[in-house]
Design brief:
- By secondary structure, the chain is α+β, with helices and mostly antiparallel strands.
- It has helices at about 45-70, 80-90, 95-105, 110-130, 135-145, 170-185, 190-195, 220-225, 255-275, 280-290, 300-310, 315-330, 340-350, 355-360; strands at about 20, 30-35, 40, 145-155, 205-210, 240, 245-255, 370-375.
- It has 14 helices and eight strands.
- It has a four-stranded antiparallel beta sheet.
- The longest helix is centred in the N-terminal third of the chain and has 30 residues, at about 45-70.
- The chain is globular, with a radius of gyration of 23 Å.
Length: about 375
């Protein structure tokens, strides 16, 4: 399993946004999709079969793409987009394989790139609604500059959420054993491989990747200890709701503001939603008013109204996960993807979320993924 690498877009339609690859270029209502001896299937028939609800959904998705990219295209960091694509190419085995995987899902690299741009346009929309300017973004980025590369050894405790864990007593005895070996000079990475029950990173010596104290993806009990441990040192035993940990700070570094600007934008947007759950839909309303977006059929009008009345909890969770992705994007932590995971990689911009990153991140538990599809 890999660490979180998802590129996630908040629930623009109060559900999973599917950026469709279908295009009716060159077709009219009378044009034929399929021919048979018993009759043809025309575009008009397909649209009638889809129904007004699905057509309204697609129309709304397309207008969201159009207005968001129009307004925020100059603020999106192309380097961040290109880095994510390069990482995915490496994960899948090269550009050709990425393009082939995208083609098999009815889309293209260019459309996929636009989808990634949308992921970063949404936080800017929220910041505009909050009145957060570039100076405040730079101030936040300054706080993100101190980065920590962490690793851990976890012995999970059995619970409803983790049925594969062991009893608290067994877990504590096992982590005590690990701690004793560390104190005797044993290698942390080797012990992680041998003992850690977090299989998403145990084979990689328990490495969790880079993160910042300011916008940590980890729960408080873990973070409070992790970011107060000296570089090259390991912590005492830490108890969280997931079990017993020993944490090591593998390395620390100071990065430039430009390197963490995207992370700062995501963090500020997440905080804005936490402070005002309605800011997400308020921001969409403001954007639609600016671009004079109006539904021209009753079905589209109804769909737009239902979308704008939806809450922002999904958006908050997804922004949290996207922020987590930015923090961990420089490292991998597990086995090679299977063919199924490779397909997931294209659909979600990564393979499955790391068990620990998911469990330790308090607000990334109900994420709706964004599918790249040709539906």
């Amino acid at each position: 399993m890999k660490k979180l690498k998802k590129s996630l877009l908040p629930g623009l339609l109060a559900g999973a946004l599917v950026i469709t690859g279908c295009s009716a270029t060159g077709l009219t209502n009378g044009d034929v999709y399929i021919s048979t001896k018993d009759g043809d299937i025309t575009q008009k028939e397909v649209l009638e079969f889809m129904g007004e609800q699905d057509i309204s959904k697609v129309a709304t998705e397309l207008v969201m793409q159009k207005v968001l990219l129009s307004k925020y295209k100059d603020r999106i960091d192309e380097n961040t987009i290109n880095t994510q694509i390069s990482e995915l190419e490496q994960q899948l085995g090269g550009k050709d394989k990425l393009e082939a995987a995208l083609k098999s899902q009815g889309t293209s690299l260019e459309k996929y790139k636009n989808r990634l741009k949308l992921n970063f346009a949404v936080p800017y929309m929220i910041l505009d609604a909050k009145g957060i300017d570039d100076a405040k973004i730079a101030e936040q980025a300054e706080k993100e500059k101190s980065q920590y590369n962490l690793a851990h050894i976890l012995i999970t405790v059995k619970s409803d959420a983790i049925p594969t864990g062991v009893s608290d007593e067994e877990a504590k005895a096992k982590i005590d054993e690990v701690k004793a070996k560390l104190d005797s000079g044993a290698n942390f990475a080797e012990l992680a491989k041998e003992y850690s029950t977090d299989t998403s990173n145990s084979s990689n010596g328990g490495e969790l990747g880079w993160s910042s104290k300011e916008s940590t993806p980890f729960v408080k009990e873990f973070a409070d200890v992790a970011y107060n441990t000296e570089k090259g040192k390991y912590s005492d035993i830490v108890k969280t709701q997931f079990g017993y940990h020993i944490i090591k700070v593998l390395d620390t570094k100071e990065v430039s503001i430009d390197e963490v600007k995207t992370q700062a934008v995501l963090s500020l947007a997440q905080k804005a939603i936490a402070e005002n759950p309605n800011i997400y839909t308020d921001a969409i309303k403001k954007l639609f008013e600016e671009y004079n977006v109006k539904g021209n059929t009753d079905a589209v009008k109804t769909y737009l109204e239902s979308m704008l009345s939806a809450g922002s909890n999904q958006a908050a969770a997804q922004l949290a996960a996207q922020a987590q992705q930015e923090q961990t994007s420089s490292t991998e932590s597990g086995a090679t993807s299977t063919s199924n995971q490779t397909q997931t990689s294209v659909t979600e911009s990564a393979s499955t979320t790391s068990q620990v990153q998911t469990s330790l991140a308090p607000s990334a538990t109900s994420v709706t993924t964004v599918a790249v599809s040709s539906n």
